[in-house]
Structure to design on (437 residues):
């Protein structure tokens, strides 16, 4: 858990084939009481460094708090691994009212400025409309409040893939639901004047997924203007159906063969499609798509044959460029292939200005040459002075310091005799300052 976050429930009834949460936390949701949650939030408020922002108020799936079966007896005998796949169980109470009450109570506490939802959200629950109108109303209210008040800038969701048969093996909803949720997310952001992003999670190399399926994923996410970052390669984990299919090569329910990418080259051939927008990945992606015979996806990703070295070959010309080019060609044909008259006048003006600049450059160069010549003359005079100074130094070196100051030795001898006479010593040898004692 993150430092300034509160976990409000455990368990998950999603039943994703690659996830172990239902195995070690349980399929049924175990919720904390509102009072218990508020007590922990009050403790978080007192923590040093807390500035009023809860980083997460969620659980394994953020919007499953308080959900359970209307008929618990039926749930106890149910054998379905997931309550929401392939369809949401009609016995499931999908009301978000209890979760809204938790959000309102936490936001009302003094010291709380914002409570964000950092956990992943099940958007298929947000889009579900059942026979219970009260539950439908609370779901719509929760969706708007989540997007407007509890997103720190990025909302995390997990479509996991775009290919229908891979999603079915994953026990995930159709990607059409993601389109619907993203349309609602964008609409609410426009209405509220917000600039927020939706961050999807995707998995590569899942059992049943081929390189061609990943190429389709890259093209679809590119059309949605996503540059994917929150991605991962499938990792086999104990107690999951996906791991069983990966190990055995068969669907445990139908016993049909299931392909799984296992070698490093096979896994890399799928993972690289996540990063189609990176320049260093483009050559390998082009080779793989040509090998698969999917030049149509190549055109969708890179727009045919872009210029070499371009980072985003799919970028269209900016608005107006084609119109200006067509107008220029039309004017040129109307003149009979002759250049515009003002071109000559422009050329004359430019030539005159260039000539003036060239003459000024020549004058500056001449002045610089004169300055350099004077500098050389000064250097020569300095050289002559240096030679004379060296001659004088040599002449001084021939004479000793005692010859330069004839009286200095006599004064030193006299001081030494006077000191020896006063000290009563015949042989006086003063100690040097640097001499060790």
């Amino acid at each position: 858990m993150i430092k300034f976050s509160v976990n409000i429930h455990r368990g998950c009834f999603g039943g994703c084939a690659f996830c172990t949460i239902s195995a070690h936390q349980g399929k049924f949701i175990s919720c904390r009481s509102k009072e218990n949650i508020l007590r922990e939030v009050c403790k978080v408020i007192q923590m040093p460094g807390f500035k009023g922002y809860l980083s997460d108020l969620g659980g394994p799936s953020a919007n499953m708090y308080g959900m359970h079966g209307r008929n618990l007896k039926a749930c106890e005998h149910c054998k379905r691994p997931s309550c929401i796949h392939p369809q949401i169980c009609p016995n499931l109470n999908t009301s978000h009212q209890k979760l809204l009450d938790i959000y309102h109570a936490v936001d009302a506490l003094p010291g709380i400025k914002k409570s964000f939802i950092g956990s992943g959200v099940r958007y298929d629950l947000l889009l579900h409309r059942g026979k219970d109108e009260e539950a439908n109303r609370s779901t719509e209210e929760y969706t708007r409040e989540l997007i407007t008040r509890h997103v720190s800038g990025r909302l995390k969701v997990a479509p996991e893939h775009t290919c229908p048969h891979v999603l079915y093996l994953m026990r995930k909803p159709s990607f059409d639901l993601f389109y619907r949720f993203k349309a609602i997310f964008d609409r609410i952001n426009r209405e509220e004047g917000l600039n927020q992003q939706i961050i999807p999670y995707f998995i590569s190399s899942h059992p049943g997924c081929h390189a061609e399926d990943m190429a389709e994923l890259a093209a679809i996410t590119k059309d949605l203007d996503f540059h994917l970052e929150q991605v991962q390669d499938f990792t086999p984990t104990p107690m999951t159906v996906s791991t069983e299919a990966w190990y055995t090569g068969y669907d445990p329910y139908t016993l049909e063969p299931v392909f799984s990418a296992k070698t490093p080259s096979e896994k890399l051939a799928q993972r690289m499609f996540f990063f189609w927008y990176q320049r260093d990945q483009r050559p390998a992606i082009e080779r793989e798509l040509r090998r698969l015979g999917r030049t149509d996806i190549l055109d969708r990703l890179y727009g045919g044959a872009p210029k070499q070295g371009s980072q985003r070959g799919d970028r269209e010309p900016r608005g107006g460029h084609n119109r200006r080019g067509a107008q220029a060609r039309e004017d040129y044909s109307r003149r009979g292939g002759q250049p515009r008259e003002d071109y000559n006048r422009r050329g004359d003006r430019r030539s005159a200005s260039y000539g003036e600049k060239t003459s000024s450059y020549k004058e500056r160069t001449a002045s610089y040459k004169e300055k350099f010549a004077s500098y050389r003359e000064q250097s020569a005079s300095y050289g002559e002075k240096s030679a004379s100074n060296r001659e004088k130094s040599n002449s001084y070196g021939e004479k000793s310091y005692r010859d330069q100051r004839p009286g200095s030795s006599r004064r030193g001898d006299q001081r030494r005799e006077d000191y020896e006479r006063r000290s009563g010593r015949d042989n006086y040898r003063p100690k040097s300052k640097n001499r060790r004692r």
Q: What stands out?
A: Residues 341-398 form the longest helix (58 residues). Residues 305-321, 400-404 have pLDDT under 50 and may be disordered.
